[in-house]
Amino acid sequence: MWSYRSRLERDLARWRQRGWISDSGFEEIRRDLDARSGGISLSSTLAVLGAVLIGFAAMSFVAANWQDMPRIFRLGLLLAGLWGCYGLAGVLFTRGFDGFGHAAVLAGVGMFGASIMLIAQMYHIDGNPPDAVLTWAIGALLAGVLLQSNPSLALAMILVGLWGGWETLLRDAVYWPFLLGWGAVSAAFLWRRWWPGLHLSATFFSAWVITSGYLLFEHHVHWAVALVGLAIAAVALAMEQFPGVANRIAPTILCYGMVIAYGGLFAFKFLEQRDPGTLTLLSLITMGLLLGAVYWGWAKQHRPVLWLGYAGFSAELLALYFVTIGTLLGTSLFFLIAGLIVIGLAWLAYRLHAQQAQPRESLP
Asked: 125 by DSSP, 3-state: which?
């Protein structure tokens, strides 16, 4: 939101200076932006952080004095804290203090998690530890949906990721049920139309796909991870051709496709033994794809794609340097060819930009 607002502010100032919009139109657009801005306020951020700290304080106090309390008092204290937070959230939402209401919901979800852990300890309940995290995640998801709290949904996604990662470590295998939990929370994000939450979902999904390459079929399916990423990138490029929402979210989907594809390609080339000829060919293909992404980001004026392409290209060159440092002649030849290709592309981009900048002749 901040990057969009700052970019739009610069464009508006330039358009106003060139006379493309009037002073009154400029002020109307500014007022409309202020009315529509749904960014995270400082007060809401501090309230959420305060709720987290209060939750930790309550859990620490209860844990420190747990053994000295009667069992019925322990249960009453947990239930009172839980429902007290949710009741306070309802009052705050009703009075228009949404930021503080979300903080109260988050505190209630924290109390729910503490209740799970402490009740399990009190009754000596043994079982699979990740199941407790899953139960906590379900509670956070229900609270987020019923009370329409985005921070609670974000916590649910983090807990689902923790649950899936814990199960993966215990089994040393891909934990497919993670996709069910991930899909449920992602659906809630989509229902709420909360784009930061969808970014969080995409981040966890990307990490899960890349990690799967290290676990499936004797840890040698990084090529499949690369294909999944390339498929996502291809879908994003196809979506860019359609107007509306598909066109607006296509660059973001392309970014995640690039991350997944490069994560798979990197492991496929550098973590598995490749002969120099195959490594060079795969690296040239990778850098060609990255340069294509850089060009696309420049042409569409989408900076995240542009900078991801730059970062991937730099990481590729650095990895190649360390891998081929023993064959200096081959290394220097490779970098010479890569440098000439990049310079050639830079010259081509300059020519295209110059042609676009030339004023067109007016028709008679």
From this structure: coil
253-291 pLDDT, tens per residue? 999 999 999 999 888 888 776 677 777 788 888 888 888
CA distances from 302 to 111, 161, 352 (A): 42, 29, 18
Model confidence at 313, pLDDT cuts 50, 70, 90, reads confident
> pTM of the predicted model, to two decimals?
0.74
Cβ-contact 297, 282 below 8 angstroms: no
Residue 112 lies in a domain: no
Enclosing domain of residue 336:
213-352
Which single residue is written with the structure tokens 């200076």? Answer: 17
Q: Could you give the CA distance from residue 242 to residue 221 in angstroms, rounded to a whole number? A: 33
* Structural domain contains residue 218: yes
313-320, long-range: CB < 8 A, 24+ apart: 313/287, 315/262, 315/266, 316/266, 316/283, 316/286, 316/287, 316/290, 317/287, 319/266, 319/269, 319/270, 320/279, 320/283
Which residue do the tokens 């030339």 mark?
358
Residue 19 lies in a domain: no
Residue 42, pLDDT > 70, answer: no
pLDDT, residue 1, reads 45
How many domains does the chain divide into? 1
